[in-house]
Amino acid sequence: MSAVLAPARMPQRTLSGRTVVVLHAHPDDEAIFTAATMHRLARRGARVVLVTATAGELGPVLRPLRRNETLPGRRRAELERSAAVLGVARLVLLGHRDSGMAGWTDNAHPYALAAAPVDRVAGRLAALCEQEGAEALVHYDPRGIYGHPDHVAVHRIGAAAAVRAGIPGYEATVAADRPRTRRPHLVDRAAGADVGWDGGGITTVVTADAADLRAKRRAMAAHRTQVPRDAVRRAGFAAAYGREWFRRTGGPGLLDSLF
Questions:
Q1: Phi, psi at residue 200, to the nearest 5°?
Q2: Threshold 0.90, pTM exceeds
Q3: Res 223 pLDDT > 60
Q4: How far does Cα 205 stand from its chain's mean position?
Q5: What number of H helices and E strands is found in the chain?
Q6: Are 155 and 193 in contact (CB under 8 A)?
Q7: CA angle, corner 107, sides to 102 and 112, nearest 5?
Q8: CA–CA separation, 168 vs 128, rounded Å?
Q9: What are the start-end ranges of the H helices in 100-197?
Q10: How far are the Cα atoms of 70, 125, 136, 228, 232 from residue 22, in angstroms, in the given order?
């Protein structure tokens, strides 16, 4: 059965002195898939270390860039704003190149995350977890949530790093059988029906409270080049984005301490 982490109504035990490392593929993924969880952890006193693997060079540009501004530069600034909203204590950029969507020639670029040796990158990530004294590592499910090559790479790297570091892994996903809402989740817009994981394999569900939802909306809105304005309207936001889903590998860990 899934452990559903409901909004806190009573004072909760502090998580001060405890650390989680959260690995994502691109700037904006942290806001879309794990913002409420990261914000809840930081509110409870945990140290949240956000690791972003690429600069998202091949993402769309929904807002015009300024003169002489590059998309990687803008996306880094957006990521920094999002991280500040969510209470991230440390932001680490791995420096790989965006691989583009499945089937693009960019998948094979020598600096693309999808082409990077899993063992080498996992070793860097495991060393970071050990340096930080992390008790858990968040990454993606084996399908990369919706099949993006960089997301699949994040799963492989994260799974290997969690084993090396000897800590629980929490695979961010979405419930494939979740009720569909009037406002589609951004991942549904990107991939349609072939998204997420069967609910029976999900171990942990974080339900955002009002403060988490405000932070998640602000974090998503920070990614102005990537997130459409209609995705962060208040009406319907909680229904579309108020839950975050995880598959845990290993024993109970830091995310389970949220309830």
A1: -65, -20
A2: yes
A3: yes
A4: 14
A5: 8, 8
A6: no
A7: 135
A8: 15
A9: 118-132, 144-147, 149-165, 186-191
A10: 26, 10, 8, 24, 23
Rounded Cα distance, 118 and 115, in Å: 9
φ and ψ at 5, to 5 degrees? -90, 95
3-state secondary structure of 188: helix
Q: Is the pLDDT of residue 72 over 80?
A: yes
- Of 140, 136, 170, nearest to 155 (Cα)? 140
Task: Give the length of the chain.
Answer: 259
Phi, psi of 35 (to 5 degrees): -60, -45
The architecture (CATH level 2) of 3-8+15-249 comes to 3-Layer(aba) Sandwich (3.40)
pLDDT in tens, 87-130: 999 999 999 999 999 899 999 999 999 999 999 999 999 999 99
Per-residue burial over 35-45, b = 16 or more CB atoms within 10 Å of its CB, e = otherwise: bbbbbbbbbbe
How is the chain split into domains, by residue range? Answer: 3-8+15-249
Phi, psi of 88 (to 5 degrees): -65, 130
Nearest to 168 by CA among 232, 256, 93: 256
pLDDT digits (tens, 9 = 90+) for 7-44: 544 456 899 999 999 999 999 999 999 999 999 999 99
pLDDT digits over 247-257, tens only?
999 999 999 98
Sign of the Cα torsion 59, 64, 68, 73 reads: negative
